[in-house]
């Protein structure tokens, strides 16, 4: 009896962790960086060593791991999030929303939002050109 309750608890905990990490955040559209409104603050969630784009020079660079520490330095205005991949985007947007920020849109640095289709939004694995 106690063993099955404990197993159920860990199963629920595991399901919640998977949901927060992999399930896309609803209501936040993907926008190409050139279509981002000038009134949105761009927050780049990639690691410091991955940020070498001149396009994101005016962005606020805060890696996902440092969001909690840097919350006081983020201005209270609508945000556009730039992430490395879908997992980083999901975790970052959820953290920012939990701290009361309004995330209006996002971009994935290695992906053009115009080419993304609804059918492949779950596919985050890069396919080999020879396969």
Could you explain how this protein is built, in words?
The protein has a 4-stranded parallel β-sheet with strand order 2-1-3-4, covered by helices on one side. The termini are far apart. It has 3 helices and 4 strands. The longest helix is centred in the first third of the chain and has 21 residues, at 2-22. The protein has helices at 2-22, 67-70, 86-98; strands spanning 41-44, 60-61, 79-83, 103-108. It is elongated and about 60 Å long. The chain has a single domain, classed as Oxidized Rhodanese, domain 1, CATH 3.40.250.10. 18% of the residues are buried. With 131 residues, the chain is of the alpha/beta class.
Unreliable runs, pLDDT <50, ≥5 residues?
Answer: 117-129
Q: How do the strands line up in the largest sheet?
A: 2-1-3-4
Largest sheet: 4 strands, parallel
Query: CA-to-CA gap between the ends?
Result: 49 Å
Q: How many domains would you count in the coordinates?
A: 1
- How much of the polypeptide forms β-strand, as a percent range? 5-15%
Question: Could you give a short description of this structure?
Answer:
The protein has 131 residues and is α/β, with parallel strands linked by helices. Helix content is 29%, strand content 13%. Helix 3 links the parallel strand 3 (79-83) and strand 4 (103-108).
